[in-house]
Hints:
Elements: H1 2-20, H2 42-45, E1 76-83, E2 89-98, E3 104-120, E4 126-144, E5 149-162, E6 165-179, E7 185-199, E8 212-220, E9 226-232, H3 261-270, E10 273-279, E11 285-292, H4 293-299, E12 310-317, E13 321-331, E14 334-344
Antiparallel strand pairs: 1-2, 1-14, 2-3, 3-4, 4-5, 5-6, 6-7, 7-8, 8-9, 9-10, 10-11, 11-12, 12-13, 13-14
Amino acid sequence: MRSLNLKLLLLFTLSISLLSTTAFSQLGGQYTYGLLNLNTSARAGGLGGILIACNNPDISMVSDNPAYLGQGLHNQINLSYINYFADIQYGRVAYSYQTKKFGSFAAGIFYLNYGDFIEANEYGDITGEFQAAEYTFDLSWGYKIDSILSIGVNIRPIYSVLERYNSWGIATDAALLYTSPSKLTSAAFLIRNIGTQLSTYYSPNKEPLPFEIMAGFTQKIQHAPFRLSLTLRNLQKFDLDIIQSGEETDPTTGKKVYDKKFQEIASKSIDHIVAAVEFVPGKVFQIRFGYNFRNRAELKLGTRNTASGLTFGFGLNLGKFNLDYALANYHVAGVSHLMTLTTNLNNFY
């Protein structure tokens, strides 16, 4: 059995390595299917928007890291609802099942509704209304290699309809998760959104997906009710090219100008970081704070101090149900509210 697990791990590692070499480094405004980067877990939402390393996950977090299924999430179901901006709303429902020999499986449906739009011609005459929406159909698998290591894969067929235009695509995530024997330390490595458009909206040219390489680390402080988390995003590209209006740029390259080399390295490095802390005084109540440095850099208003990038959340154990809530401050113009309800169907037997 140990030999089989080792062969499975080697095959998995080789597969994700080969897949990642065919993907491209794409960032905001350069890819399609932006819904793949939306957070659907209120627990992760309160911790900076994503959490890929954790020793006590639930089914809502599998969309971030499918290797969580190796931790044993049998018969869990969750419902998530997110009130985004304007009339935009999205949500997700997912269910997981654990087998004795073949690991754990999960299935979920994610929807994103952009609301109603007024249709008009080139002269401004109103001709009707139209809608826009996007969906993913999530299939996940996770397997526990041994007591400390798990692997997982997400496969997501995607359907997008924007007025009369529609597109199909497919995306894959692959992940490794380490959990220490003491359960105090977790670390993860994730390659996400490997895939392609299967059919385009109107152009024959296919657009890239938001490919990303990530690493994460969570440490529970022994004898203290705190978990500290650090997630590193977009490791496939060091310079994320985050330039605010009014900042000095090189007229030849268009890149931001820095006074010192150290300042440049520090600024570009911090844009990859999501930091979070979770206060866990017991099993009934948790409080969460997170900070997404890239969101802060992209959405701040020049030199004005705002709360962009800051997230807050809490979790409640209501007996048979767990309720999680998160508030994410993206911009001075508004915030986003996330709610997730999770239960284990075994509680009702």
